[in-house]
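Appendix B, example 12.
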Amino acid sequence: MTAVTGSLLSTVGFDAVALKPTEVDIQQAHSLSVDTVIIDYEGNEHVPDPTQLRDLASSFDVRLAIPVRADGFDPLGDNHLTQSLPDAVSRVFVAGNAAYLSPEEQQRAITPRLNASTQSCTDPWVGTEGIERIALALGGTQFELLSKSTPNEISALRTAGYETEFAVYAPTVLSDDSDTILNALGAYAGRRTAVRQQLPNEAPLDSTITGSARQTLLAACRAYALTGTPDAVSKQVDSLHSAGVDYVVAYPAQGINVL
């Protein structure tokens, strides 16, 4: 295992890093050589306080994921958390993962809330997961989750004359070891509906998985993430840029201290 050097992330070619406050102290971002830091949303109780965000924004372009249906971030209701954000913190507006929303919040209409949020922001990024057509209609930088089809889809949009920027969220493991990849990414890839349908019920989503299910899950990890040696991942990042991606956002699935 190799200690992360901030220069390694930039050498590979990433434009930004996404951090989860439940996994890492966001102040550790100061060790990274990237310009942009995305803070993932994992529930209101895990949103960094304004002082932490302000400190981070003194060194980086900081963007916070804003779930527009959640209390505290709802532009058509309770938005006290949005109002407390430092001016220097930019936003990524998302529908919000149901795992972090109450049943009531999940029932709220997405489109009018995204529209209200993006209209009040000068440089919005808009999460496309599950709402691709709505996001395209709203404009702003399109914030997509990496999949095997991402390069072809974005290349086709560029060919059709679509000029809005694209950011791609890419879980990343800088290793070609199968066990390492499965332990870091198995649960993430296994949540995808198409993957879940191919796996036996109760199949483990880590390196303990065996047989054909292991190969299915490993293939999914590689389809929905960037994996391999730093040189191999660098070539994948170059391919995304060549397809028309403006920002490749690495989520370091093993943490930012260990590769």
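The beta strands are 16-19, 36-39, 61-67, 90-94, 125-127, 141-145, 166-173, 226-227, 247-252. The two ends are 6 Å apart (CA to CA).
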